[in-house]
Specification:
Radius of gyration: 28 Å
Largest sheet: 9 strands, mixed
Cofactor: pyridoxal 5'-phosphate
Structural class: alpha/beta
Function: Allosteric enzyme that catalyzes the rate-limiting step in glycogen catabolism, the phosphorolytic cleavage of glycogen to produce glucose-1-phosphate, and plays a central role in maintaining cellular and organismal glucose homeostasis.
Number of helices: 34
Number of strands: 22
Low-confidence stretches: 1-23
Helix content: 40-55%
CATH superfamily of the largest domain: Glycogen Phosphorylase B
EC number: 2.4.1.1
Protein name: Alpha-1,4 glucan phosphorylase
Strand content: 5-15%
Distance between the termini: 32 Å
CATH topology of the largest domain: Rossmann fold
Mean pLDDT: 91
InterPro entries: Glycg_phsphrylas, Glyco_trans_35, Pyridoxal_P_attach_site
Strand order of the largest sheet: 5-8-9-2-1-10-11-15-16
């Protein structure tokens, strides 16, 4: 077995690994342990000379460079390794300290961790940004140039992964004992190019070799099985036990990513799993000339962790994604069990030392896998094991739309995971028996609450399975939590009661999304609040309200916004070859391209504005607010309608930006390949950001929080976290519009059976598209049909009139610069609730039952 403390001298041996255990070896280990303990008592002082020497040492020995070969990339890598050296030392101390106390830990299971770049974040957390900047300057390199050399980690594609990254950051910063677990994808979702106005996907080769921010752990491997068959055997006690045998077996190997806490000695960890491929080459087949067979197992294993979320529009893609989820779940649960067994505590203590959070339904296969490991491998009886399972797991639901709930066909599960399907059958059977005992003869309730959905074929409803197995289920915004209690989990409320279902409103890490992304504003806030403690306690931002009306402060605030807009304008010029004025209003919508997020409505509004400007006299036109409308985001590779939305945006941009008669009154920009680093440039520059999902469809959203924290104003629907943001900052500081969540179904019913007449403004916009202003009308026909003959599921035609009125209100407010800057300051000042620190405190106290455990500083 392996100690959780990386490179610990007290590490135990992993199962399956043979190591010499001679007397000389034991003496050597004792000596090494003593020396390492003495070494760990010393923390290398930080000064420019030592840091510069560390960078030069890594340039010479790690990067193997001679002076004339040194460039900004090599310098970045050497600096990154020197930072990692410091992280590893604190990381070991943290893990060993938590291990020595046998504290309860949370394990946050997420298929995505959208980490962004690590170097800048680590330097800020360690308080070394200035020292490293000075040292790099002394070596003839600029800090910003070196930071740009780092690629964004391609371990996520949207809000789910960014939320997970914020939560692990908060766990470390708040000294909570906990790890993240995920998969080490070799390729991200995809790199997005725009070619002839269309999205084109190319591989996202984010994973550098080597990657200084991960530590390969070849000694930490677990076998993961697929296919095969189940046999019944008698154990030594004569008791029958199930054994899963045969099939395909791969080794899941660990890669560790240290995550430093801000202003604390604690460094936590994200453990990522990848297939270990070295043993899979068949030398015999190779020597016989059967090269395909020689490499077959290796290629199969490589595919399992090759790509984030493979396209599942076909059966092979579906099976691959299911295997990904099980590889992740199985390796994680085996690792947690190994760590628990090292404590020597009885199995009844497992939930007292282990809390597992399922971040959405992707890790739900961990439920039957833990049950299997406990009964098949550890010999516990069913009831004892199930009691442990249900006291260990908790589940965060991110889904509002029933059609978006994850389901797996029963035949596929029976084929790939035969033992787990039989366990799921039993879990469901025993659960339904309990339900039937309380509600006899209610066959409809049993059908609605079953984890197995009847049909051809039957489907396993993963959210239902997670709900059955978890002691707590939470939504991620107040409105979202109320909606799921009334819809997808209504029948579970009927059985369990409402106490099991709670709300935990999402939050964002202020370290990344203000302190790092907006350094100018961070410095101003610190000077006003007169402490840097706000970086760990956002409630301190409330003091900013005292400076509303202070002319000098307001001018500084506006100057910083302008500087950020100039930075974004330069980025747009570089990447998109479009020149925009930083003095125009920057109107931003950045997120995954999806019909429910309604980028389509946004671009229809842009066309309306364009038509109005074209119809105005020159004199009237000059009174209009200049505006730059900025879009960014990826459409899923198989999502045809979402890709058409991108094509419409880029086609409108081509026409509008080339129209010299507008004199820069309107520009449209689509920034390709949206990622964390791009967001860090866009968000601080926003004047207004659009969060305009159909009411009741966005679980929460976190980009809205990032924009408002940076003094951006929201134009949004009454949906997701917009509702709570409005409560905190005040209705006068947000522009709301559109129908409400409880009105949506009535409107949809009306649109489906008695469509309302299309509003004249929308009709005019659609006519502009149909007459070829933005290219061949036939291209956009399927998109327009979603409004005219597709039932308008996302109610664009219903909300469009109020959307236009809201845009007018934004223009009126923006003209009054003094009231606008006051609104911007109040937005930032009242965002204390939306820190991920607050979220993690609530999870820790009310769901996980863990306490802060700060690692003592070195004397």
């Amino acid at each position: 077995m392996e100690s959780t403390a990386p490179f610990s001298p007290t590490s135990m041996t992993m199962p399956g690994l043979v190591r010499h255990n001679s007397l000389e070896g034991q003496v050597g280990k004792t000596k090494i342990a003593s020396l390492m303990e003495e070494f760990d008592k010393k923390e290398e002082p930080v000064d420019n000379e030592r840091v510069q020497n560390a960078i030069i040492r890594h340039l010479s020995t790690t990067m193997v460079k001679i002076p004339k070969q040194v460039d900004s990339f090599a310098t970045y890598m050497a600096a990154a390794y020197s930072v990692r050296d410091r992280l590893i030392q604190r990381w070991n101390e943290t893990q060993e300290y938590h291990e020595s106390l046998q504290v309860k830990r949370v394990y946050y299971m997420s298929m995505e961790f959208l980490l962004g770049r690590s170097m800048d974040n680590a330097l800020l957390a360690l308080g070394l940004k200035k020292v490293y900047s000075d040292c790099l300057n002394g070596l003839g390199f600029n800090m910003e140039d070196c930071l740009e050399e780092e690629l964004n980690a391609g371990l996520g594609n949207g809000g789910l992964g960014r939320l997970a990254a914020c939560y692990v950051d908060s766990l470390a910063t708040l000294d909570y004992p906990g790890w993240g677990y995920g998969l080490r994808y070799e390729y991200g979702m995809f790199k997005q190019l725009i070619v002839d106005g269309y999205q084109k996907e190319v591989p996202d080769e984010w994973l550098g070799d080597p990657n200084p921010w991960e530590l390969p752990r070849p000694d930490i491997c677990y076998q993961v099985r697929f296919y095969g068959h189940v046999n019944t055997r008698r154990n030594d006690d004569g008791k029958e036990q199930m054994h899963w045998e045969g099939g395909q077996v791969v080794d899941a190997m660990a890669y560790d990513v240290p995550v430093p806490g801000y202003g604390t000695n604690n460094v936590t960890n994200i453990r990522l799993w990848s297939c270990k491929k070295e043993k899979l080459f068949d030398l015999g087949s190779f020597n016989e000339g059967d090269y395909d067979h020689a490499f077959a197992a290796k290629m199969h294993a490589e595919s399992l962790t090759a790509v984030l979320y493979p396209n599942d529009n076909h059966m092979v893609g579906k099976e691959l994604r299911l295997k990904q989820e099980f590889l992740f779940a199985s390796a994680t649960l085996q690792d947690i069990i190994v760590r628990f067994k090292q404590t020597g505590r009885p199995w009844s203590d497992f939930p007292n030392l282990v809390a597992i959070q399922l971040n959405d339904t992707h890790p739900t296969l961990g439920v039957p896998e833990l049950q299997r490991l406990l009964i098949d491998e550890e010999g516990l009886d069913w009831d004892t094991a199930w009691d442990i399972v249900t006291r260990t797991f908790s589940f965060t639901n991110h889904t509002v739309l029933p059609e978006a709930m994850e389901r797996w066909p029963v035949p596929m599960l029976e084929k790939i995971l035969p033992r787990h399907m039989s366990i799921i059958y039993d879990i469901n059977l025993f659960f339904l028996q309990k339900v039937e005992k309380r509600f006899p003869d209610d066959r409809e309730l049993l059908r609605h609450i079953s984890a197995i959905e009847e049909g051809y074929p039957q489907q396993v409803r993963m959210a239902f399975l997670a709900c059955i197995a978890s002691h707590t289920v939470n939504g991620v915004a107040e409105i979202h939590s109320e909606i799921i209690k009334k819809t997808i989990f209504k029948d579970f409320i009927h059985y369990f009661g409402s106490e099991k279902f709670v709300n935990k409103t999402n939050g964002i890490a202020p370290r990344r999304w203000l302190h790092q992304a907006n350094p100018l504003l961070s410095e101003l806030i610190t000077s006003v609040v007169q402490t840097k403690d706000w970086v760990k306690d956002l409630r301190l931002l409330g003091k900013l309200e005292e400076f509303v009306g202070d002319a000098e402060f307001e001018q500084q605030w506006m100057d910083i916004k302008l500087a950020n807009k100039k930075r974004l304008a330069a980025y747009i010029d570089k990447v998109c070859n479009i020149k925009v004025s930083p003095h125009a209003m920057f109107d931003v919508q950045v997120k995954r391209i999806h019909e429910y997020k309604r980028q389509f409505m946004n671009i229809l509004g842009v066309i309306h504005r364009y038509n109005q400007l074209k119809a105005m006299s020159e004199t009237r036109r000059q009174k209009e607010v200049p505006k730059v409308v900025i879009f960014s985001g990826k459409a899923a590779s198989g999502y045809y309608v979402a890709k058409l939305i991108i094509k419409l945006i880029t086609s409108v941009a081509a026409v509008v930006n080339a129209d010299e008669s507008l004199d820069n009154l309107l520009k449209v920009v689509f920034i390709p390949d949206y990622n964390v680093s791009v967001a860090e440039v866009i968000i601080p520059a926003s004047d207004i950001s659009q969060h305009i999902s159909t009411a009741g469809t966005e679980a929460s959203g976190t980009s809205n929080m990032k924009f408002v924290l940076n003094g951006g104003v929201i134009l949004g629907t009454v949906d997701g976290a917009n509702v709570e943001i409005c409560e905190e900052i005040g209705e006068e500081n947000i522009f709301n519009f559109g129908c409400l969540a409880d009105e949506v179904e009535d409107f949809r019913h009306t649109q489906r059976y008695r469509p309302m007449a299309i509003h004249p403004a929308l009709k005019s916009v659609l006519k502009t598209i149909e007459n070829g202003t933005f290219g061949k009308p036939s291209i956009f026909g399927p998109l327009i049909e979603t409004l005219t003959s597709g039932g308008d599921v996302y109610l664009i035609s219903i909300d469009f009139p109020s959307y236009l009125e809201a845009l007018k209100a934004v223009d009126r407010a923006y003209r009054d610069k003094k009231s606008w800057v006051a609104r911007s300051i109040r937005c930032t000042a009242n965002m204390g609730k939306f820190s991920s620190d607050r979220s993690i405190h609530e999870y820790a106290r009310e769901i996980w039952g863990i306490k802060p455990c700060p690692t003592p500083p070195k004397v």
